[in-house]
Amino acid sequence: MIRTLLCGCVAFFSVTTIHAQPAKPKTEPAKQEKPAEEKKNGSADLNFNPDAAVTTNHTVTIRGQKVAYKAIAGTLPVWDEEGKTIAGLFYTYYERTDVNKANRPLVISFNGGPGTASVWMHIGYTGPVLLNIDDEGYPVQPYGYKENPNSILDVADIVYVDPVNTGYSRIVGKDVPKTKFFGVNADIKYLADWINTFVSRYNRWGSPKYLIGESYGTTRVSGLAMELQQSHWMYLNGVVLVSPTTLGIDRGSATGAALRLPYFAATAWYHKKLAAEYQQKDLEAFLPEVEQFTMNQLLPAINKGGLLDDAAKRTIAKQMAAYSGLPEQLILQNNLDVSTNLFWKELLRSDGYTIGRLDSRYKGIDKREAGERPDFNAELTSWLHAFTPPINMYLRNELNYKTDYPYYMFGSVWPWDNSNDQTGENLRSALAINPYLHLLVQSGYYDGACDYFNAKYTLWQMDPSGRLKDRIKWAGYRSGHMMYLRKDDLKSSTDQLREFIKSAIPAKAAKY
């Protein structure tokens, strides 16, 4: 089970004020979270209000255009079959206020984990504010945030949703079973119910609707696409998968081993560990060669197992070594099946570094150079360093959401039920049933947890007939799991989102 997100010379961003507004945002009357009740001894208990919100008004400049919007930060209930409140989900909703919203697109955004909040894409990708990082995505101080000139708020309203036990979302009552929330299919069911509530409360039934998910969030939104159609009669215009999981599509051990090689090659190319004949090529000119070798030679070779003769095995291992930067002997010792953990430890071992799981551009230092896996995920530590202060500062100071509850970047969702994951097939069915529905997949070449070539493989297996390919698009970026943290990729990926949102609004009736 995936438990995490997930996502030379350095140019630094300066910290600026977010909005062209007075120092304190204008606050509309709204239900506030219940204050803690004082006890006689002076202590206080935290009281969670599952249905509370605060509204503030702001402006942001996006691509040179001034955009006025309101931000609603709050909680909205999850009810059981008898109408009893069993949880309250924290959300942040941005609605543009200087346009007619009758046909305005709505984007519903989730991150992954499965136990992580929506913070990552919220203040790193699509929202109206952007955390303070350098041009490659590394943390800088002082912590802070500024306007996001690449936000998609100019073309669509956005709601960021924190599932149970992430962000400020909490279960209501000690007797509520966790099985209501913590599992592939339970997660999809209660979130679909919640989306129905949100869409009804904010009068968005007439809007073109899009789901975007990152990492485990791609499993989530793939299942939601079908659940919303089947159980809520809510038909979507688009689904965006950022750094997708396998979506329940079985690889088998041999296929899984082979599919890693293109990611290995991209990472080795980035760290300049390849021979000149490969290193001098552009990355996107080099990778198709590796992909062809993977599908046409490596995959059949690994599938042969012990039937593969020694000479053929050495030939395959030699080419794998040339593409991956790994020693040929190490590949042979592992029977052509090199784990990602070993790759992250081995590639830069002689330089004294490990490389990151979610973004192989990041380096770590282990206690010992020996071993078969890194001591820690260098990139995740860096991201938590960068994201945690700004989201707490922003929600409290700019959106005026006051609470003593901690904001869970990661929360406990254990035990998580991964059984009966049919989300890839769910998404295929939703696409087949709904002629309006389009799919966009975005992948970082240096993502080792949800690698780009596995994302391509998922699309091939999800649509084996090729009949849906006109509504499916894939794009790769020269960064990792959270490819948007790199300044150049933030601009190009949000450009692509804008185009996708606009192109998925139909000009004709929904029919084949």
From TrEMBL:
<keyword id="KW-0732">Signal</keyword>
<dbReference type="InterPro" id="IPR001563">
    <property type="entry name" value="Peptidase_S10"/>
</dbReference>
<feature type="region of interest" description="Disordered">
    <location>
        <begin position="22"/>
        <end position="50"/>
    </location>
</feature>
<keyword id="KW-0378">Hydrolase</keyword>
<dbReference type="Pfam" id="PF00450">
    <property type="entry name" value="Peptidase_S10"/>
</dbReference>
<dbReference type="InterPro" id="IPR029058">
    <property type="entry name" value="AB_hydrolase_fold"/>
</dbReference>
<protein>
    <submittedName>
        <fullName>Carboxypeptidase</fullName>
    </submittedName>
</protein>
<keyword id="KW-0645">Protease</keyword>
<dbReference type="GO" id="GO:0006508">
    <property type="term" value="P:proteolysis"/>
</dbReference>
<dbReference type="GO" id="GO:0004185">
    <property type="term" value="F:serine-type carboxypeptidase activity"/>
</dbReference>
<keyword id="KW-0325">Glycoprotein</keyword>
<feature type="compositionally biased region" description="Basic and acidic residues">
    <location>
        <begin position="25"/>
        <end position="42"/>
    </location>
</feature>
<feature type="signal peptide">
    <location>
        <begin position="1"/>
        <end position="20"/>
    </location>
</feature>
<keyword id="KW-0121">Carboxypeptidase</keyword>
